[in-house]
């Protein structure tokens, strides 16, 4: 395979996945509701087939849809995502102690931002961008930190759940055919 095939937007990923695969990948990674058109564009696939895949994902309970606005939007079942991610953490290479250390580190980063900017939430930090004394670089920095803060808050919830439910999330050792 030539090096050019790795560098193009329609390179290796598109050659090894179907349009349906790409729609599923995009849909499962949504962090906020999006329209079928947006998902189709991200998956580099046409609207009609994308809509059909999204409807199947809704029927399967993988996605939810909201048709109350001007456009129907799709979003993942965040509970399912959190549970799957918690199970991946439990089944992965990390110990409960390592995950607890990660929690401590994430919370320390947030406390550092709270102290540095004298704010309590990412949105309060975003609000400081209105300060006229900031240059463009500092505005960008604060916007980036607020996004990272949002991300860390979601990670703290998931990692915290994995730690709290460590024993419950343990892989089962029952034979595949065992029923009660």
Automatic annotation (TrEMBL):
Q: Which residues form a coiled coil?
A: 89-116
Identification of the protein by name: Sugar-specific transcriptional regulator TrmB
Q: Which stretches of sequence are listed as region Disordered?
A: 1-21
Pfam families assigned to the protein according to its UniProt record, in alphabetical order? DUF7342
Q: Kindly give the InterPro entries that the UniProt entry links to this protein.
A: DUF7342, WH_DNA-bd_sf
UniProt keyword annotations, A-Z? Coiled coil
Domain of life from the UniProt record: Archaea
Organism of derivation: Halovivax ruber (strain DSM 18193 / JCM 13892 / XH-70)
Lineage from the top down?
Answer: Archaea, Methanobacteriati, Methanobacteriota, Stenosarchaea group, Halobacteria
Q: Please list the residue ranges that the record marks as compositionally biased, kind Basic and acidic residues.
A: 10-21
């Amino acid at each position: 395979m030539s090096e050019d095939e790795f560098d193009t937007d329609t390179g290796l990923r598109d050659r090894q996945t179907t349009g349906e695969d790409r729609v599923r990948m995009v849909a499962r990674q949504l962090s906020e509701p999006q329209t079928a058109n947006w998902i189709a564009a991200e998956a580099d696939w046409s609207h009609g087939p994308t809509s059909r895949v999204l409807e199947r994902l809704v029927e399967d309970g993988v996605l939810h849809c909201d048709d109350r606005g001007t456009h129907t939007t799709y979003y993942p079942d965040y509970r399912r995502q959190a549970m799957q991610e918690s199970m991946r953490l439990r089944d992965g290479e990390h110990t409960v102690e390592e995950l607890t250390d990660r929690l401590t580190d994430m919370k320390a980063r947030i406390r550092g931002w709270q102290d540095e900017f004298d704010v309590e939430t990412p949105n309060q930090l975003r609000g400081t961008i209105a300060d006229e004394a900031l240059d463009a670089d500092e505005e960008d920095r604060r916007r980036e930190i607020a996004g990272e803060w949002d991300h860390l808050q979601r990670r703290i919830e998931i990692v915290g759940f994995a730690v709290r439910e460590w024993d419950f999330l343990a892989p089962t050792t029952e034979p595949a055919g065992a029923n009660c």
